[in-house]
Model the fold of this input.
Amino acid sequence: MKCKRILSLITAAALCFSLAACGGAASTASSVASSSETATSEAAPEATPAAEDAASPETAADGLRVAGLKGPTTMGLVNLMESDAGANYNFTMYGAADEIVPLLVKGELDAAAVPANLAATLYQKTSGAVEVACVNTLGVLYILENGDTIQSVADLKGQTIVTTGKGTTPEYVLRYVLSQNGLDPDSDVTIEYCSESTEVLSKVQAGEATIAMLPQPFVTSALSQVEGLRVALDMNDEWQKVAGSQLVTGVLVVRKDAVEADPEAFEEFLNGYAASVEAANTDLEGTAALCESYGIVAKAALAQKALPECNIVFERGEQMKTDLVNYFQVLYDADPASVGGAMPADDFYYGV
Done:
């Protein structure tokens, strides 16, 4: 790992995803992952304290200042971070989105890989000073079952689903998919909410629940810990069936003034990002090792198993806009506050 390329790699034991421990991860990791990195401002997740000696973005050398969260939305960046070109940028890792928001608002960061609806919220919060450059992660939510009853969404009728994210994007996604399949989320199913993904996993392990909705990489960890547990439904697939577009988890948001300062340099960064995403999907072993090195996931073995299911992409242009507009509309209809109170205008979409 080229440590000089990371200004402040914030390590926290609470963010460790363990394949062996029944407890899985601690509360901070759970609050990030259980919202599948999609809740508004990470649903105000528990912040991870930075190391006292960590450099702050305002002390960075020249170069695009890019922030990432510990989770799927940043897995696609690690190959760029490790490359020779990565020396041209200042990458900073954070444990929670609420650490990134004020820095972007104040202009102390230029870009960040964040939950998609947080990008929409930032657009409203900054009066249009930010835009979305690309989609970097599609859906990471899955319905798991300890059994073989659930083969379709219709099979969830009369069942209890244990999950996280009440009042945040996971709830909106689940309710939308259920309702579009003719099920009333309030009467045809029972949705039991837990505060974090480890609590969900504990209920499944104890036999208190047989059906759960979890995000990656918790899904991979859960499958290794509970005998008979299987993926029953991929919520990305189910969303696409009813919405006609892809379910979006994460994006890269950038300040417009940073792009305008050097448009060619930003395009060069995006080209490097695209190559990094391609490497993340083709060199699983190498990418997994980097995910561990940079503290995004504690164990490379877990990252290597989870990467193919994390739906890491590099999507820009009209396809990016189509997927995001459809996604935001569902969230807005459920709760306008989830996208900052209003749908983003056309100038939110970079290059469209």
Q: What stands out?
A: The first helix runs from residue 27 to 34. The chain has two domains: 3-139+246-348, 141-243. The first strand starts at residue 6 and ends at 9.
